[in-house]
Amino acid sequence: MVHFTYTPCFDDYISFEKFKFKRNRSLLFTYIICVFFIAMGIYDVIVSKDYQMLIFAAAMALIDVLTAVYEIKILPKKRVKRILAADSNYLTANEITIDDKAIEIKNIPNENQAGIVAVYPYSVMSVIYETTDYFYFFIGTEVKILAKKNIPQESAQYVKKIISSKRNYIYSK
Q1: pTM here?
Q2: Are 98 and 6 in contact (CB under 8 A)?
Q3: What are the 10-residue block averages of pLDDT along the chain, 173 residues in total?
């Protein structure tokens, strides 16, 4: 069993939003369509010397680049700010206990706040993603984020061993 204190920060939630973005397959389909139109424009210029289609293809490429920049750089920050404005408890300190059966998360409340203790057996988690810097625990519609840098150094291998042995564990780059 491992027990430690962890306080999530703004950057942890930004990293999670970027993780969600990388896993979104519908956006990939949109980019494939844009690349298709660009390829059609270039082909049309080569075959029929019609530069009108090239202008259309260049406009599609510009829209594609602007959309990517917005979704990668701007949208995650907006989304996290909105979430944190709605509930400041996301940034409160937590005491975490990890063992081979469950993860217990107990928030450390500020003065005049109620404390919350939640025990999450691994069996109720739909998936546990590990990236190079984080563990993401998907529990129903909720996600718990644990930065690896906050796990005590002497316990890091034990935590990784326990979590990676679960059937719902996935390593993602």
Answers
A1: 0.80
A2: no
A3: 92 92 74 79 81 79 82 89 85 92 90 84 95 95 93 94 94 85
